[in-house]
Amino acid sequence: MKNKVAWKGILAILAATISTVTFAASPNMNTAGKTNPPIGHYEYCMINGNECGSNGSDSGPLQLTEKLWKTILKVNYDANSKIEPLTDQEIFGKEEVWAMPTSVGDCEDYVLLKRKMLMDRGVSPANLLITVVLQPNGDGHAVLTVRTDRGDFVLDNMRNKVLLWSDTEYTFLKRQSTRNAGQWVKIDDDHSPALGAM
């Protein structure tokens, strides 16, 4: 009987240790100084200056409640379902145009819509960060990062599932600053997609 109790205690300690190690693998991105915004976002800000200013004071990642998690999932699904994916070339006859979509759009347009939908539901813009990544094939892509106390989660038009950033197959390059939506910062991407997929 004593052995069973001892083993239960050891297993509990191991579980807590594994949980701590997993959490220590940085569920939130580290940033590494200012960088230039994508040209499409710069041009978008020239037209929509009210969306590209100060985010106010940054009080840190928001608390991820069950209600908020359901809202995030719903917004990601609703936007992905509502907008038909087309390239900027197909829509505008140009290579790169960022615009709020109504029926068609490409990756950054989905991001703009999801960001607006979550802001309309009371989420601070300091925690809704447009993020530029590289896909495994080397193509650029834009996603929305939602910064929470449980980690940085990625809303992606390529999937309805919302993943922790380190569980995606992407290489993270840069994102909006938490302090100012018109400024961008580099991402120190040291996560391993292979480990994140385990």
TrEMBL record:
Signal peptide region: 1-24
UniProt keyword annotation of Signal present: yes
Pfam families, per database record: Peptidase_C93 (PF06035)
InterPro entries noted in UniProt: Transglutaminase-like_Cys_pept
Positions in coiled-coil regions: none
Swiss-Prot/TrEMBL keywords: Signal
Keyword Transcription attributed: no
PANTHER family hit by this protein: BLR5470 PROTEIN (PTHR39327:SF1), PTHR39327
Listed name of the protein: Transglutaminase-like cysteine peptidase
Organism: Rhizobium alvei
